[in-house]
Amino acid sequence: MAAIYTPLLWLHFVAIGLGGAATFGSAIVGARARGAPPELRPHFLAIVSRLSAAGTMGLALLLLTGPLMIWIAGGTGADPLWFWAKMAFVALLVAAVIFSRRNLASMREGDADATARAPKIGMVIRFAYLGVLALAVLAFH
Question: Which of 7, 56, 58, 95 is the most buried (most CB within 10 A)?
């Protein structure tokens, strides 16, 4: 089973990296976009859209590889309290990413309220992402 588990674990770490790049990269690009001239904002939005797609792909990989690794290993081997706390943060992260993707679509249509909401949604995503990582360390140490 190690022949299957190890590549899954590698993919899981790649997915964490994609999520981190998207989470923090979008915040940096978004902050620059707010101060940019209006004619440049669509270019920044295109970058955020690509980062968001990469982050969504990372999240999908995590949601696929995590349960597969648990199934192959025959359990988590984790501290149950911290594992389920981590899963609550995963649920928050999934919900925030779904909301963010919908908000991004509204931003593309020129919705000023969606643009104003984006930094707050990003803060929730960063909080959830960092929470998942911290709780994973506690659960699997």
Answer: 58
Q: What Cα–Cα distance (Å) separates residue 141 from each residue in 9, 78, 85, 113?
A: 15, 8, 15, 42
Under 8 Å between Cβ of 69 and 5: yes
Listed residue (63, 43, 52) closest to 101, CA to CA: 52
SS3 for 36-83 is CCHHHHHHHHHHHHHHHHHHHHHHHHHHHHHHHHHHHHCCCCCCHHHH
Burial (CB < 10 A; 0-12, 13-18, 19+), residue 59, is: buried
Per-residue pLDDT averaged across 104-123, rounded?
94
Q: 2-140 domain in CATH 1.20.120?
A: yes
- Listed by start position, the domains of the chain span 2-140
